[in-house]
Amino acid sequence: MLKTRITEMLGIKYPIIQGGMLWIARAELAAAVSNASGLGIITSANFVDGKELREEIRKTKSLTDKPFGVNISLFPSIRPLPNDEFIDVVIEEGVKADS
Length: 99
Known about the structure:
Elements: H1 5-10, H2 27-35, E1 40-43, H3 50-63, E2 68-71, H4 83-92, E3 97-98
Parallel strand pairs: 1-2, 2-3
Helix pairs in contact: 2-3, 3-4
């Protein structure tokens, strides 16, 4: 095990954090990275509303019992993102890491 401030803070074995990649950063990839002892990330911009994000978070929880995070994009977007709604869902679902 590689012990660093990041691994201790995030509860992961290796200091590897998946990027928030639009279109592919979904439950399956996030869970695979987390199961490999890194930090998997779901990208909220993949979803149109908090309901869809909540479903993806729950799907990720069904695929891993390890920590994972949710990327909330602050970049300008072609379509408005309901980031306030996304943040509420992340908190309500108990996701411990966000980027």
